[in-house]
Structures are given as C-alpha cells and as structure tokens.
Amino acid sequence: MDLKEKLVSSFLAFENKGGLDLDSNVHTLRLKAIQNFENEGFPSKKDEEWKYTSLKPLLKHDFSLFPSGEKSVGFKNIEEYLINEIESYKLIFIDGVFSSFLSTTTHDECDVCVLSSALTRPKYKMIVDNYFNTIAKGNNSLAELNTAFAVEGAFINIPKNTIVPKPIQIINFSTGSEKEVMLQPRNLVVVGENSHVQIIERHQNLSKNTTLTNSVTEIFVHKRAIIDYYKIQNDTDDSSLIDSTFVSQKQQSVASVSTFSFGGKIIRNNLEFYQEGEHINSNLNGISILSDKQHVDNHTLVNHKFPNCESHELYKGIYADKSVGVFNGKVIVQQAAQKTNAFQQNNSILIDDGATINAKPQLEIFADDVKCSHGCTIGQLDESALFYMQSRGIPKKEAKALLLYAFANDVVEKIKIPQLKTRITKLIAKNLGVDLGFEL
Q1: So what's the pLDDT on residue 440?
Q2: pLDDT band at residue 26, thresholds of 50, 70 and 90?
Q3: What is the 3-state secondary structure (H, E, C) of 171-197?
Q4: pLDDT digit string (tens) for 151-184?
Q5: Residue 261 neighbours by CB under 8 Å, 6+ apart
Q6: Is 253 helix (H, G, I), strand (E, B) or coil?
Q7: I need a surface site. Which of 38, 165, 167, 253 has the fewest CB within 10 A?
Q8: pLDDT band for position 73 (50/70/90)?
Q9: 395 pLDDT higher than 90
Q10: Closest listed residue to residue 232, CA positions, set 265, 269, 202
Q11: Measured distance CA(70)–CA(17) in Å, rounded
Q12: DSSP states of 261-307 as a string?
C-alpha cells in the first residue's frame, strides 16, 4: 500500500477519532477535501508547478499518521529553538499536540490560543467558521490533504485598533516517538482593522527519525492592518517540510512574509498573496543557504486584483555541495489593477560545481498602466573582491563568508525584530561555517 492509499483508507478511522469540530458541516468539509486529494494525488514532476521538485523520496516511507507514543519534553529540551531574548506569546506543539505547560497564551487585548480551544467558545467559533478553509480551499492537493486530516494548530485573532505588545512564536516539535511520522498543523490568523502583529514560526525535529510536515496557514489582513510573519527553517537532514501559506489582504494593509531556509531534506514553500482592495503593499523575502543534498523550492504567487497596489519580492540563495534550489515566482496583474507597482528579484550564488539552481520568474500582465519588473542572476563569488580582502589580511574562509553574508544582508535588514535579526545572523554564520565576529 503506497502513502496515498494509506491516507485515503485511514480517513474514515480519523473521522471517527475526531479532529477539528468545525460544526455540523465538518464531515462534508473533510469528505470533499479527501475526495479532491484522492482524485489529484501527490503532485509529481509532470505537473508544471512541481517540475523541479520530486516527492518520490518521501512517498517511499511508511509514515505514521497518528503519533501514539508520548515523550516527555521540558523547557530545557526546546530552549535553544526559542527566541528567549524577548518577551513573547508562545504556542508550542509536541507531535501535533498542544502543550499548555510550555506555552503562553492570552485572551486579553487579543486572542492567542489553539483552534480546538477557540471552537469551544461561540464567540471564536463564529470567526473560525467564517474564515477557515476559504483561501486554501481547492488550491492544491496537499492543502486539501491538510484540511482532511487537520487536528490542531494556532488560532490568532487580533481585534481592530490593536497593536500586539509582543511577538507570537508558533513552534511545532517532533520528538521521534514514531520511527516515521507525518504531521499536519493548521494555523488561522486574522488581523483586524488598524492592527499590527509580529509572528515567528518554526518546525523542529528533536530526533534523528524521519519527519514529514504538511503545514497550512491562512492569514487574513484587514483594512490598514500590518503583519510581519517570519519563518525559520533550520531542521535536521531527516526532516522535510511542505509549507503552504495563503494571505488575503484588504485595502491599505501591509503584509510581509520572510522565509529563512537553512536546513532540511526537502522544503517546499508555497506562498500566495491575494490583494482584495486598493493601496495594498505585499512583501515577500527569503534567504536559502544549503549544503550536502538539501533541496529548497520557493514557489510564490502575488495576484493583483485592484489598482494602486504594490508588491516587492526579494529572494537570495547560496548553494554548496550537491544542494538544489528552486525559485518559481509568479506575479499576476489583472486588467482592473492599473497603477500597479510589482518588483521581483531572485539572486543565487553557486559555491560548488555540483550545486544547482532552477529559476523561473513569471509576469502575467493584463493591465496597461503598470510598473512591473523581474530580475534573476546566477553566479559565483567575485574572485577580485575575494583577492582584495585576502590582500588586506583577512583569511580566505572568513573573506568568503563576509562576502556571502553581504550578499544575503539585503533580506536580513528587512527583519523588524532586533533579537530575531541577531538570531538569523548567527544562523547564517553557522551555516557558512565561520564566526563573523559581530552581532546586530
């Protein structure tokens, strides 16, 4: 029995076991999702959107769908993966199960809790019912799979005119209680009018066992709201992540998503923005630093539907050994979206001859009064700059690392949380194999 057959045959048992109780329509919602997945199956390289990324190595595993074993996890086990330098709300999940002991939630100025908790209260249940699965619905087979099997996830609801006083951390840990496990977290974020929130998300395997995470996040940003969302991806070589994030923005809102991919066997980032009003600003940023046989695929979409909006996209990649990077960025400007300003840039450096980058920037423009541009560069380190730094007494390894850091710094500078910027700087230095000798 292959993984697809196992998932489909396990669905009935999962339904009987119970998951997110969205209301009496839950069965219809899940049934349609599993039917769509059964019809479409896992994407293959025959699909244009998955041309450069193969899931075949993952589909050979006999993943456990419902982790049964329980491992005790204390703060000392996860401390290094948290941004402890700042006060924050924390939503910690262990093998897909919410840990109230390790988490810090609130219902004061805003709601930071979990979906299962929100659904027990009529006030929040209405919000979930109104937003859940409205932009991820019917989008792709893996998002449908998540909808069918979603058990738990983060629920973040920011009322209008609220500035959340501290960042929110969402971290999903896998303990290795199963030899091979598949996790499917589901997050829902609603940012009300004139509100502002900062969120940091991470998936982390605490063992050497094989983990596949199929994560879906839906983000709704209302009028004049601001959200800064940061994704840290620095997992083990036995861990793979399929991360699908969907963002719906209303007029005059600003949404920024920054993705930092430093570790993992296969990482696929599906990031989609839908602009639903005028004077919207969408920002997509990313850094990938890969080695060995790691594979990262950044797949982005920005859909401009209304006039006078902007989108800015900047992705940098550094690839060593036999690693593979993929960038497929699509910008759509609908006919009504006049006065659109869309910028897209992807720059990559190949350190070794065995490294590969596949880049496919795309613009689909149906309006005639727009400013749209895209650029893509692939190259190696500037040997003359490297020689100059060595001639000034800087060892070759450190000189190389400084040049690579300078290359990635455009994205680092966009981080608005100083403590997070410092953490990302250290992760970059670690992945480049040097001590840069400074902090930001």
Answers
A1: 40
A2: low
A3: EEEECCCCCEEEECCEEEEEECCCCEE
A4: 899 999 999 999 999 999 999 999 988 899 999 9
A5: 233, 267, 269, 286, 287, 288, 289, 290, 296, 298
A6: coil
A7: 165
A8: confident
A9: no
A10: 202
A11: 18
A12: EEE-SEEEEEEEEEE-SSS-EEEEEEEEEE-TT-EEEEEEEEEE-SS
Single-letter residue type at 220: F
Identity of the amino acid at 291: S
Beta strands in 9-153 (DSSP E): 89-94, 97-98, 111-114
Q: Report the candidate in 96, 190, 218, 194 with the shortest Cα–Cα distance to residue 149.
A: 96
DSSP structure string for 8-34: HHHHHHHHHH------TTHHHHHHHHH
Q: Which of 181, 202, 196 is nearest to 91 (CA)?
A: 202
Backbone angles phi, psi at 311, to 5 degrees: -145, 140
For 277-298, the pLDDT digits (tens) are 999 999 999 999 999 999 999 9
C-alpha distances out from residue 378 to 40, 194, 316, 401, 412, Å: 34, 40, 10, 18, 20
The count of residues in the chain is 440
